Amino acid sequence: MGIDIKFPIGLMFTIMGLMISVYGLFTLGSPIYQKSFGINVNLWSGVGMLIFGVIMLLFVKRKKED
Length: 66
Description:
There is one protein chain. The protein is mainly alpha-helical. It has two helices and no strands. α1 (6-26) runs antiparallel to α2. It has helices spanning 6-26, 41-65. It is rod-shaped, with a radius of gyration of 15 Å.
């Protein structure tokens, strides 16, 4: 077929998710999370992005094996 866009999207989400998750780990216990009911939004959104990016990269790998 044509261009497979899953690889750049997976790579982008994996890198950004990793960066945001690390930032969330460094800001644990920070008072900025009082407005979000104590939920570390950076950590959890980063983990979600990381999971999505890895899933996209796994789809690319599975496609190449076929």
